[in-house]
User: Fold this.
Amino acid sequence: MKPLDDDHSRRLFFGRLFGCESDCPEELKQVSSQIVEICGGLPLATISIASLLANLPSVSVDLLTHIHDSLVSCLSSNSTSERTSQVLNLSHGS
Assistant:
């Protein structure tokens, strides 16, 4: 499966987490966009992280920054399958 383009990745992430991108609080948009970028167009990675966040009682800039930093540190691999596996491990381990 080909990676999603940026627009589809954003729709998937923001749709799952906020309903749509326009419903995302302004203070969360930048770090949310960075998380989408880190997921690299991988649909399973994108939806897993968005679902993890959507199931929390609240989402803050600090929480999104922590998720972002965790993704950056665990996604050093270039292999798509390894990156997806690492995101799934992160989303189920949190």
